[in-house]
Model the fold of this input.
Amino acid sequence: MAAEELVVAGRRFRIRKDYEAALRDQKKIDRIRSELNLDDPQQLYNLYGKLKSGAFRFETVVGTDFDDEIYEKVEKLKKEERTAPKTDPPSGTPKVRKAKPDPKQQNKRKPPGKKPDHSQENYDEEMQKQILHELHKREVRRKLIIGLSSLVAVFCFGYFGIYYYFNARTSMDYETLASLKGSDVLANAPKANEISLHKTGFQLPDVLDEYKTLYEKNKKLIGWLKIDDTNIDYPVMQTSNNEYYLDHNYNQEYDKNGSIFMDCDCRVYPRSTNLILYGHHMKSGNMFGQLQKYAKESYGKKHSVIQFDTIYEKGTYQVMYVFRSQVYNDTDVVFKYYQFLDANSEDEFNYYMKEMAALSLYDTGVTAAYGDDLLTLSTCDHSQTDGRFVVVAKRIENPKGVLE
Done:
């Protein structure tokens, strides 16, 4: 079956394994729809509860779409129930009067019964020992539960404290770094091409004055990424592997937010055809936590321009493709966007563009030709196993003209 035919519920799949998993999800969804009336509030709530409890498990984004559909139906139903006006009983319906209590009955009191006497003196010595032993065991269990609960509470507060500490520190650190852009603290520093050479052996241009101070603080700096009207305003790092900056920040401190970093095999000079930048999808919104907003076409149009400067030259890019993909096995014969760094011929470049266009969630109207410079932003996508969310842009010369 051709790749373009591997479609289930409007979702395109690249390999047969994912396609077959999606078919299984769709079969399960069809069975649920046939057995339940989703217009019945009670049945809808029951289904929602089962989905939340994990009674139904799905393997692909087809199941995620169905889960989202049920969630939206339930939220809509809850909203309707909250806003529904309270109805009065139909006219003509006789009002039921509550019977007044009979004072005579109220004054009647039940004869007090004799309360059972549970004092230990009523038991023999052996029974008293057993009672004391049981009470002691209960007290030990109670203290143990309280102790464990306290430890769990301390752990939870500690975890959230560390989480918010890292987020706050990350925000403050990058605000400080942004303020160093354009700083003349190291204006008299040696020229960059006198300091170091790129691993390719080419002598590099001068570092832009705007980034000299930041570069002197950490020579792993390779550029700066900024998207207006978002929190994406970060330095971009590069080292000899794609592991270090997964959990280290610009200051080379451990940081669960990591950093935005460039694929270790990309070159900024001489420039690779496609520069790939990676970043975590943080729930706090840090790093690439907001990148998946590009899944909506309206958001993509509003934020179509990306500013990415290397330390040697400034650059403006326009969003071209937005798609979901995966990290595949080495043996999978499928387009792997993360392997597209250089196009050695026009045919090869056009092949890459065709594959990306087929994956794109919507048509931006932007295309690229052989010789254009590309920029790819990549982050995790939890809607599928080893999923990735990808935004690809091409370099442009006149951003103002593009936005008009």
Notes: The first strand starts at residue 7 and ends at 8.
